Amino acid sequence: MSVLTQIGEWFDRRLQLAAPIREAAEHRVPRNTASWWYVFGSAALAVFALQVVTGILLALIYVPSANEAWNSLQALNHDVTLGWFIRALHGWGSNFMVAIVLIHMVQVFLFGAYKFPRELTWIIGVFLLLMTFGMAFSGQVLRFDQDAYWGLGIGASITSRMPLIGPFAVKLLLGGPIIAGATLSRFFALHVFVIPGMLIGFVCLHLLMVLKLGINEWPMPGRVVKRATYIGEYHELTKSDGEPFVPYAIWKDLFFAAAVLLAVAACAVYFGPFGPTGKPDPTIIQTAPRPDYFFLWLYAVLSFLPPSLETPALLIGPVVVIVILILLPFLSGEGEKSWRRRPIAVLTILLTAVALGTFTRLAVFAPWSPHMNAWSGDPVPERFLRGTSALERQGALVFQVKQCRNCHSLGELGGQRGPSLDSVAVRLTQDQLIRQVIQGGGNMPAYGKNLSPAETTALVAFLTTLHPAGQGPARDAARDFVLGNSQQTSPAPRP
Amino acid sequence: MPNETISRRGLFMKLGILFNGLVAAGLAIPVVRFLLSSITRGNANAYLSWVALGRVSEFPEGETRLATFRNPYVMPADGKTVDTACWVRRVEGEQFQVFAVNCAHLGCPVRWFPQSGLFMCPCHGGAYYRDGSRASGPPERGLFEYPYKVENGLVTIQAGELPTPGASAALFGKKTSCPS
């Protein structure tokens, strides 16, 4: 007997772990679950392990103090050997983890794996998803920069809308009356102790149930889950058409996990770490905070909700979604597992994916945000000024100086908050333009108090020139009829 | 099971559990009080206090200027986060309006554009008129206003809490409605 085996046996006589581990590894799984579709759970676990390791490495340098956090991140980026790489691994690891957890959930949903007897596995999975989001948000806070600071402000603003307890919940969240040192410290405690501790515990339960209940078999259309017969059928399946998990199925998990870790490392090397952006100094207000990518869709939704719906949607929406996710296995615990026989399930996934994708894409451009510097940065394109009168040029100046460009684009430059004004004269008559400028409306502020009559006249004169070459400006036919065409003050269409 | 007898060991085990429960409950009181201290302290508005922004003469009449102040409640590790900005509008004489920079929608910092007389928010496009009332965009109300007073030629405001849309505190309760 070799020395190594002897040492192994010495330990196992005391630990007695070899037998249960071998039993777990060699438990029989249905042959067709050895599929590339069944690798996302283990990949999420692999990325989680990477996050734990890189997180501990970062904690060797990071200082969880509002005064020092930003500087310690700069030190990691620039002074500590490969500090930038560990930060990049951790940052990209978090992006990958959110993505893989979501893909895993979609796969489980489409394969009907949440049905009897795996309801609790699913419910714990829902909590794991919530904790993953909790880690993502709290991690963003620990990168204590401008985005983190104002992101906390957004979190506090949402929290404050809770009826009755709102203001107290804000102080509990922030650890005080304002976003300050105590806020960072409590998010550090959440990110490093509380949530990871719960995550590890829940992951263990999640895995234990996968072992005890068996991996979900490949769903076959027509093979219907019934509470009375399912367990027997599953055991029959693993007996007649099963193989030991190790090594029959695990090699795909291993390959995919390694590929994902390699992809994280490649992103880390190529794109580098995230931020930190500007210092978390609340007196620097020249900033346009943006959330990390997994919360961008929320950022977009918050700009589209009508004001009256916002508070109910923010407070009730998440609760409804979580309750539906938790109730799902009880509402459809039996029946068809195959996505081929579950069109509503497939449509739900498609609709959710398209909605989240669209909102995320919109949030990248943020057309609802004014371009704060457009009025001083983007000059009125020359072609809009060719052949114009002195009054109209004065109007173009008013247009620029009064920051109209922050919300309205001209020649594709400027904000997209309001409509593009390239051909506004075709849409609005002169009177309508005057009314819109002075009184506002339709989400435009009223400028009546900020424009002198002369400025308004000049501005509207300029706006009435904004129409395509072959198309005249809109005119009020009734007014033309009463006053005669000669009273029409808009200039003739330009050649 | 009315006639069930309890063994001596069984009784001791139950007493042991009871003993642990009592100790846990006793320890829970300070733990919970510690956890909730950030709320309970604020109950009596202990966080609020009057802070000076500058001399009246630093704020020209009819203009809106950015001012900064140090939050009255400071902890050792707060760093720059306790330095806060606010917009000071001197209407005329000693009549002021002091606005929080935090948008009434979700708290992003609004910027003042004197030429168009608007505060604009870079996040979701909220806009406010020069008097802080809502002009357009997602906010449900006007900008948050700090209570102010002029003392010995100094503009002072009552500050100390992050203004949030749900703040029930007397501080930011006043709603500035849309004038239209």
Descriptive report:
The complex is a heterodimer of chains A (495) and B (180). Chain A is an all-alpha fold and 495 residues long. Chain A has two domains: 25-365, Cytochrome Bc1 Complex, Chain C (Up-down Bundle); 374-487, Cytochrome c-like domain (Cytochrome Bc1 Complex, Chain D, domain 2, Orthogonal Bundle). Chain A has 21 helices and two strands. Chain A is elongated, with a radius of gyration of 30 Å. Chain B is of the alpha+beta class. Chain B folds into two domains: 8-35; 48-172, Rieske [2Fe-2S] iron-sulphur domain (Rieske Iron-sulfur Protein, 3-layer Sandwich). Chain B has helices at residues 8-35, 37-40; strands at 49-55, 64-70, 83-92, 95-100, 111-113, 118-120, 127-129, 134-136, 145-146, 148-151, 154-159. In chain B, the strands form three sheets. Chain B has a four-stranded antiparallel sheet with strand order 2-3-4-9, with no helix packed on it. Mean pLDDT of chain B is 87; it is low at 173-180. Chains A and B meet through α7, α8, α9, α13 and α14 of A and β3 of B.
